[in-house]
Request: fold
Amino acid sequence: MMKRTLWAPLALLAATGVWAAGETIEINPPAEGSVSTEEGLAAWGRIYEVASHPRCANCHTGESDRPMWSGPSYGKARPHGMNIRAGESRIGAEHILCSTCHTTKDEDWSNANAVPHAAPRVAAEWQLAPVEADWFGRSSVEICRQLRDPERNGDRDMLELAAHLDHDLILHWAWAPGGGREPAPYSLQEHVNDILTWGVAGMPCPEN
Ligand code: HEC
Ligand code: HEC
Reply:
C-alpha cells in the first residue's frame, strides 16, 4: 500500500528528467510512530518558512487572480505589474497567457534566468496556484490547516504532497531563481524531508 503510493510519483520524477545529475530527491519517510508531535511542529515551522517565502507565496495568492511581486528584489510588495491577471483558467487564458513571458525551452537555469527583473522562465507552463492553496500573507496556522485538508490540498496524503511534482520545474526554479532573487529557504530535499516528518507526526498544526 505504502509502496504503491510511493512508486507512481517516483516514476514520474524519473520520466521528467528534470533534475541534473546529483539532484535526485529521495522519499524516505521516518518510521510510523517515530516522530513526536513536538518534532512534527518543528518540521511544520520550517515548511511554513518555505510556503510563506516570496518564491512560493507570489503564485499562491488564493481568491485573487493577481500574482504578487514581493521579496527583497522588488522593494515594496505589490500586485504583478502590467495589469496581469490569471483569470479563472489560472494560466491567463482570458487575458494574456503567463507562458508568453514565463516559458522557455532552455533547461539551463543559470542561463534562462540570469537577467535581474526579467520574467522568471521555466521549461513548463507557468501558472497561478489553485484558489484553495491560498498562502500569500496567511498565518502559519491557516496554511497548515489548508495543507492537511484533503478538500483543499488536491486530495493528497503526506506522501503524495511530498512527491507532488506537477510543478516540479517551478519548484526547481524557486530554489535556484537567479536574477538576484533570493532562493526559497533550506533545499528541496530538506523540504521534502520536513513534509514527511510532519506527516508521520500526524500533520500537527500550531494552535494560533
Ligand atoms: C508581459 C510579460 C509577462 C506576463 C504575460 C506575465 N508575467 Fe509574470 N513577470 C513578468 C516580469 C517581467 C516579472 C519580473 C519583474 C521583476 O523582477 O521586477 C514577472 C514576475 C512574476 C512573478 C514573481 C516571481 C518572483 O517570485 O520573483 C510571478 C509570481 C509571476 N510573474 C506570475 C505570473 C503569472 C501567474 C502570469 C500569468 C497570469 C504572469 N506572471 C504573466 C512578466 C510577465
Ligand atoms: C509559478 C507559480 C508557482 C510558484 C512560484 C509555486 N507554486 Fe506551488 N503550485 C502552483 C500550481 C499551478 C499548483 C497546482 C499544481 C497541481 O496541483 O497540480 C501548485 C500547487 C502546490 C502544492 C499542492 C498543494 C495544494 O494545496 O494544492 C504545493 C504543496 C506547492 N504548490 C508548493 C509550492 C512551494 C513549496 C513553492 C515554493 C518553493 C511553490 N509551490 C511555488 C504554482 C506555483
